Amino acid sequence: MMLPTQAKQTLESALAEHGLRSTRQRECVFAVVAASMDHPTADAIYSRVRESLPGISLATVYNTLETLVSCGLVRQVNFEREPSRYCPLSEPGKHHAHFHCTRSGKVFDVHLPESFMKDLEALLPPMFRIDKVDLCISGQNRGENPSGHVEPD
Amino acid sequence: MMLPTQAKQTLESALAEHGLRSTRQRECVFAVVAASMDHPTADAIYSRVRESLPGISLATVYNTLETLVSCGLVRQVNFEREPSRYCPLSEPGKHHAHFHCTRSGKVFDVHLPESFMKDLEALLPPMFRIDKVDLCISGQNRGENPSGHVEPD
DNA sequence: ACTGATAATTGGAATTATTCCAATTTCAAG
DNA sequence: CTTGAAATTGGAATAATTCCAATTATCAGT
Questions:
Q1: Residues of B with CB under 8 A from a CB of A
Q2: For A88-141, how does the pLDDT look when each residue is reduced to its tens digit (9 = 90+)?
Q3: In-domain check, residue B57
Q4: Which residue is nearest to nucleotide C27 (CA to C1')?
Q5: Which of A112, A126, A150, B4 is the most buried (most CB within 10 A)?
Q6: In chain B, which residues have their Cβ closer than 8 Å to the Cβ of A140?
């Protein structure tokens, strides 16, 4: 897993902003998450990262994921009490929700337009300052999959 | 903790619909949750229930909460990876979100109007059948509390 | 390059909410 | 009452995550 130069810049400046160093481990974990569209768990990330960094420890994967989340590069997603999943967070201003198919276990991103976020904000008492919004929808995907044909997952 | 006759009816019929019996333990756990506006954890519910049923086990509290959730009487609420919290679910058709104050730890219900739920549905690919929506907003409550005066939690 | 100070990583132990399980108790119906 | 199913119980087990002390890597200043 190699990190494109541009992504490397992104990582390094985000870390620097928080007074943190860029390391091989952080680069690699970031590269794996950035390349993963399937919302992997820490464990799955661990095994993917080990393909390029066999000696990395699970503790470091957890530490790094926490670091990346706090730098705003990665998002942690929780469904019920399942193990946390992680996804890349490219544009900081853009919000997305998650659809969790209870049949297949797959997770889909759902883009949330600015208008929707505004509506949501309007529903809250005005003195509640929003830091984070977690919206998870679960159900079953009975539709077309990306390959274009219909199947029940 | 005594359960009002009407609530008892609700519980008994909901349980009966699922082929389940009403028991002292279930009545009491239900009564505690129904009377709790603070979104208690299983542990908190356990200690409240023990005031009327000192011999109840934590396992039963967990079992019962699961039962009540599956009967649609109680809602399980998760913030990040914190212990699950529970709240009464009076009207089955009515949706609400949760605002989690990161300063005080308090949880507030946020009513979601039907129009908002419709908007949300419209954002999803049409073949996604929604079973459940979990919306958690976290941030800080800098506003008036129910007693009417302003304080920083 | 070298050195010291600081930060990051590591392996393994610890934590903790929750689930599991086998044994007992309760319940409702015949 | 008896009997079979359902519910409860205490304690053990699970599993994701966090903690910790020891090692290793990195950076800044010489």
A1: 76, 78, 80-81, 84, 97, 99, 101-102, 108, 110-113, 116, 119-120, 123-144
A2: 998 877 899 999 998 888 999 999 999 999 999 999 999 999 999 999 999 998
A3: yes
A4: B21
A5: A112
A6: 128-129, 131
User: Rounded to 5 degrees, what are φ and ψ at A106?
Assistant: -70, 155
> What sign results for the dihedral spanned by CA atoms A41, A43, A44, A45?
positive
Half-sphere exposure (Cβ direction) of B142: Cα atoms closer than 13 Å: 7
How is residue A84 annotated by DSSP?
Answer: P
Question: pLDDT digits over B94-151, tens only?
Answer: 899 999 998 888 999 999 999 999 999 999 999 999 999 999 999 998 865 544 344 4
DSSP letter assigned to residue A148: S
Split into its structural domains, chain A has a count of 2
Element (H, E) at B118: helix B114-123
Both tokens assigned to B86: 């529970």
Angle at A101 between CA A97 and CA A106, to 5 degrees: 85
SS3 state at B39? coil
Count of C-beta atoms within a 10 Å radius of residue B50: 16
State which of B49, B68, B88 marks the end of a domain: B88
The span from the CA of B3 to the CA of B28, in Å, is 7
Q: For A69, phi and psi rounded to 5 degrees?
A: -65, -45
Alpha-carbon gap, residue B3 to B26, rounded angstroms: 11
Same domain, B66 and B107: no
Q: Do A60 and A124 share a domain, yes or no?
A: no
Measured CA to CA, the distance from residue B72 to residue A121 in angstroms comes to 28
Strand C nucleotides, any atom under 7 Å from protein beta carbons: they are: 7-12, 16-21, 26-28
CA B43, CA B83: separation in Å to the nearest integer?
9
Nearest CB neighbour to B137, from listed A113, A130, A143: A130
Q: Are B49 and B1 in contact (CB under 8 A)?
A: yes
**Within a domain: residue A114?**
yes
Q: In this structure, what is the dihedral angle of CA atoms B33, B38, B44, B49, given to the nearest 10 degrees?
A: -30
